[in-house]
Amino acid sequence: MIAYILSSFWRWLGAVCLIVILFDSIEHLIVAINPVRKVQVSQNGDSITVEIEGATEADIATALADIEQNRKETNPND
Question: What is the separation of C-alpha 54 from the centre of its chain, rounded to a whole number of angstroms?
């Protein structure tokens, strides 16, 4: 089989393309099964912005608890 693939440039190129497509498809499948979880919190003055991307409810609860803890540390009188 290897001799057949290496016998022609076009067969070799086709085999390489098929392998690249196969690995790209596997990568997309893995990303679809395990999505990236991202929670980003930023604060500008009195405004707090929370960006949530693919996060679970537990991730959101953790982010909100962190915001509350940070708020208590920076403003102990509140």
Answer: 8
Cα–Cα separations (whole angstroms), residue 74 to 49, 54, 70, 78: 17, 29, 6, 9
DSSP helix/strand/coil, 73: helix
Q: What is the spatial distance between Cα 59 and Cα 64, in angstroms, rounded to a whole number?
A: 9
Q: What is the pLDDT along the chain (78 residues), one digit of tens a residue?
A: 888 888 999 999 999 999 999 999 999 999 888 877 787 877 787 777 878 887 788 887 887 888 788 777 777 665
User: Can you read off the two tokens belonging to residue 69?
Assistant: 């803890």
β-strand partners of 20: none
The answer to whether residues 6 and 16 touch, using CB atoms and an 8 Å cutoff, is no
Beta-carbon contacts of residue 44 (< 8 Å; ≥ 6 apart): none
